[in-house]
Amino acid sequence: MKTFFAPLAALVFTAAATFATPAVAPNREYILLSGGPSILVWEQWKSQPHDLWWQNFIRAAEIRITELESQGVPASQITWFVYQPAYQTRSKQEGQNLVGNISALGSSLHVKLKFFSRSQQVIDYLNAGQPRSVVKIADLEYFGHSNKACWMFDYSNLIDSASKVWIHEGELNQLAPGIFARDAFIKSWGCHTGESMSQKFRRATGMKMWGATGRSQYMTHELPVLAQPEKSRWRY
């Protein structure tokens, strides 16, 4: 996943790629997940290196948070999870405190920022971070590396082209029933999720999760788009 810095070309959006924010109510929570970036030591010799810009998955979440707030969602109802170890590793490459930068951004957005280091922390929060009999999840979105079967929180950060921390489609049955609002919007903005994990998500939860068939492309000023829209699509 690379980042384009050039102006965006005109894009054609299909109905599957569009979404509407569920009605805002005080008993709803909006949850965004940001995985971590690759590091140069693993990527520098590849013909298409990943994450030349460390902010790929941070910037995308920031854009989406700003969008939700513009649609009337109070910042107090938005929870942003960030996979901390990957940004600690990338900090050495960048020569700056990326975790501190992300913390400052979370404060400026006035959202609840939560760093995590284990996948189970995310699953536990989805199930019981709020009293789910009362506070339903109205929005769940993932920004990060993924393949057709899992979200990879630290892809090519500790091991070349591999991940040690993930949520696999086979683990989705750990999600408790009834945690999502009936009209919840759920989307994985990473690559390939729509090829398998989206379908497994629906079987496990009864909820639709939009995902890409093929690769997604992270941008600097827009939400991620399909890298090859003529060959792929958003689907659940």
Q: How do the strands and helices of this protein lay out in sequence?
A:
Layout: E1 3-4, E2 28-34, H1 40-43, H2 56-70, E3 78-83, H3 84-94, H4 98-109, E4 112-116, H5 119-128, E5 136-143, E6 145-146, E7 150-152, E8 166-168, E9 180-188, H6 197-205, E10 211-212, E11 216-219, E12 225-226, E13 234-235
Parallel strand pairs: 1-11, 2-3, 2-5, 3-4, 5-9
Antiparallel strand pairs: 6-7, 7-8, 10-13, 11-12
What is shown here, in short?
It contains six helices and 13 strands. With 236 residues, the chain is of the alpha/beta class. The protein has one domain: Rossmann fold (3-Layer(aba) Sandwich), CATH 3.40.50.
List keywords for this structure.
single chain, 236 residues, alpha/beta, Rossmann fold, five-stranded parallel β-sheet, three-stranded mixed β-sheet, disordered N terminus
Report on this structure.
There is one protein chain. By secondary structure, this protein is of the alpha/beta class. The chain has one domain (about 25-235): Rossmann fold. It contains six helices and 13 strands. The strands form four sheets. A five-stranded parallel beta sheet has the order 4-3-2-5-9, sandwiched between helices. A hairpin with a 5-residue loop joins strand 11 and strand 12 (about 225). The radius of gyration is 17 Å and the shape is globular. Residues about 1-20 have low confidence and may be disordered.
